[in-house]
Protein 1
Amino acid sequence: MTKGVLTLLIVILLLSWYLSFSASRLDRLHHRVETSWEHLDALLQRRAAVAVEIAHKSELDPATYLLLASSAFQAREASIVERSEAESSLSESLKLLQGDSNDEVDVIAPELLTELGTITDKIKIAVNIHLEAVNAVRHLRTKLVFRIFRLAGHAPLPLRYAFEDDIL
C-alpha cells in the first residue's frame, strides 16, 4: 500500500508541477502580448503626432490638410473599440499624401517625412511581433489542458485588430 500511495503522491506532484509550469508559461505569453501592444501603441501615437506636424508645417491644399489632420486626431483619440477603423483611416490618408509626391511637403517637411518613414518601418516590425505573441497565446489557450484546468484564469483572449493586417 505504501508503494501505491507513494506512486500516487509522485504523480500528483508531477501533475501539479506541470500545471504550474504551464500556467506560468501562459502568464509570460500574456505579458508579452501586453508589452508588445504598449510598444505598438506608442509607435502608432507617434505616427499620428508626426502626421499632425506634417499637416501643420506643410502647405497642403485644404482638402488634404483636413483629411490628414482629422484622421490623425481621430487615431490619437480613438477608444479601443474604434481604434482599428481610425488607424486604417490614418494609413490611407498617409498613403494618399505619400502617393502624391507633393513638392510643398518635400520642401517644408523633409525631416518629418524621413521620421514618418522610420516610424512606418518600426510599426511594421512591431505589428509582426505583436501578432506573433497574440497567435502564440491563442494557440496555447486552445489546448485541452489549458481549457480543462482553466489555466488562463480570467485573462481575456488577446484580440487581433483589422488594421494590423493592412497597416501601411
Protein 2
Amino acid sequence: MGHTRVVAIFVLIHGSMHGSWCWRDLVPELEKRGHRAIGPDLPCEDSEAGLGDYAAVVEAELPVSAAAERLVFVGHSLGSRTVPIVAEKHAEARMVFLCSAPTALGPVDPEAFSGMVTPEYANADFDQRADGTQRVSKSAAGPLFYHDCGEATAAWACDQLRWQGKKPLTEPSPLSSWPDRRMHMIVARDDRVARPEWLLGEAPKWLEGTSPIVLPGGHSPMLSRPAALAEALVGEALD
C-alpha cells in the first residue's frame, strides 16, 4: 500500500512594511510541490491596528476546510508576532519563524529590539507620516531587504513597500500564554535586518531539541531564493 501524501496549507504572514506581494515567487514554488499557500494583506498602514486586528485578517482568509488541513503559519520578521495568536486556535498547526524568532507576549522591549536588529537597520533612514506610521526610505530599503535579489526584483519590491504602524511592537499580545505547537526557525545567514547571531542565540530557548535551518542570503529569501525556501518549509512542515 502507498503512503497518503500530506498536503499542507502554508499561511504566509508578511513582515513590517510588506504585503501579500512579497510572496509572489514563493507561492508557485510551494504549489509546484503539491501544497497550497495563502498570503493575507495585514492592515499595517492603519496606525490603530494591533495584533488582534492582524490575526483577525489572517483568520478570515483561511479556507473553510482549514480545520481538517495541516496548517503551517509562517511569520516573516514582524509577522512572527501574529503567528502564535492564529496558531492558538488550531490544535495541529505548526509555527515557522522566518528571519525572526519567537518573542515574549508583552510589548517588545526596546533594549531587546536593539540587540535583535542590525546596526544598519537601527540607523536606517525612515520616512514618517503624521499618524506615526513609518516606512524605510527607498534608498535604504534595497541594501537592507533585497541586496541579494535580482536588480529588477529589488527595484519592484522597493516600490511596493507600505507604511507600518507601531502598535504590533508596542502593545502586548492578546494571548496569556504561548500555544503548545511545533515551532521551527529559518535564519538567513547574511541578514541585514535581523541579526543572525541574535536569532541563533534565541533558538535554544524556544525550539525543543531541534536546530534552526540556516539559509544563505539576506532578509528576503522568498524573493531571492524562493525554491530553497520552499524546500525548507516543506521539509519542516512534513517532518
Protein 3
Amino acid sequence: MTHLKRQKVSKRWPIPRKGTKFVVSPSFSPTRGVPILVVLRDMLKICQNRKESKKALHAKQILLNSKIVKDDRQSALLFDTISIVPAEKYYRLGLSSNGKYSLEEIQEKETNFKVTKVVDKRILKRKKIQLNLYDGKNFLSDTKCNVGDSVVINFKKKKIEKCLPLTDKVKIVIVEGKHAGKGGFLEKLKPERKMAKLNLEGKEINVLIKQIMVVE
C-alpha cells in the first residue's frame, strides 16, 4: 500500500488535517517516523510534489543517516539525520514542544551520529549481546548497556559509540504520551512503579519510564 487516508495519519506529522484524501504511506511505522516525501515537500518545502521528490532521489541528492535514499516512502525516524547534498544543508528529525515532528539544522559532522533508546537486550549464542533499539535497529555490541539506557550510534563506523545510562540528573526528552516533545532532567527513578520524576523547566511531573529517552 502506497497511500493511506489523511485522517488516519499520526498527529505527529506536521501536515494539515484537511487536504487531499490520501497521503503517502511510510515504509515503517506511521507513528515512529515520517516519510521522506513529507520531509521534503511539507517540512522543508524544497519539492512541490512527488514527481520532484523522486527526481531528487534519483539524482542521489538526499541522504538519510549518511545513506542515499532511494524510496520517498522511506521513514525518517526520531533523531535521524537528513542531508540535502546540493544545498549542503543538514537536519535532525526531532519533536517540537507540541509533540509534532520538527527539523533542527545541524552541522555536517553531526550527520554520522544518532541517539536512540535500548528497548530490549538479548544474549545470543556464544554469549553475544544483542541490543534492540527504539528505532527498530539492533546491534551486536560489547558496550555495557541496560534496557532503558540510550546509545549513540556511529553510522560511519556502523557501531554503537557509547552508552548513555538512565540515571538521576541526566538530560531527557519525552518521546511518547501527552507530554511528548518536552525536555528536561530526570530527578528520580521509581522503578517499582515504572515511573520517573522529571524536572521540566522548574516544573515537576511524573511520567512512565518507557516514555522518556536519555539524550545527554
Protein 4
Amino acid sequence: MLNRFPDRAAAGRALGTLLARYRDRHDVVVLGLARGGMPVAFEVASALNTPLEVLVTRKLSAPGAPEFALGAIASGGVTVINDDAMRICANSQELNCDIARQQAELQVRETFYRGDRRSTPIKGKTVILVDDGAATGATMRAAIRAVRDLGAERVVAAPAVASLPACALLQAEADELVCDVYPAFLRSVGEWYRDFSQVTDGEVRNLLARAADIAA
C-alpha cells in the first residue's frame, strides 16, 4: 500500500504509538536525523513526552546518482561505507573528496540548528533514533555508531519505513528496531508518503525551538 503516510508528521504519530512503552521515561532522548527525520521525530518526542535533539547526518552519494547512497557520515566523524556499492560506483579518491565536503556541511548545519542552545546529554541514556525512512540503512547505521560513541546506553533505531535489507542491517547494529512499514521491495522512501516535500534547515531549527519551549 503506497502513500501509507499523508506526511512526515503522520509517520511520527504512527511511530509514537509503536514506541508508547518509552513514554514519560527520564532516561530516554529522541534524536531526529536531519533533515527529513526531524518532523517525524518531533511527533515521536511529543507522544512520548521526552526531549528532542537533532543528529546531523550526510549521505555519501554515487557520482551522477545522488539518490544512491554509498554510505553516510554523522556527527563526531563517524563514517559508514557500503562496500558493495563502493565497488560498483566510485573510487576511493572520489569518496574521500565527498567525505570532506559533507563533513564541512555537517558542521555548518549543526551550528545553525542549535545556535547557542546546549544539547541534551545522551550518555547513559536510551536513545531513539528517528528518520522518515531507511532505504539502504547506511545513514541510520552511521547515526547508531555516533550515539554509541557519545555514550548512549541503549539505541533504538526507528525509521518510519525501511527496506528488508536495511532492517537486517539495523537489527544487527541497534539494540532494538521499531519500524512501521517494511515492504518486501522498496524503490524509494518517498513513495510511501503523499507529501514528501523537502524539509528545510529553518524547519529543523524551528522544530527544535518548539520542542524546547514545550519542555520548559
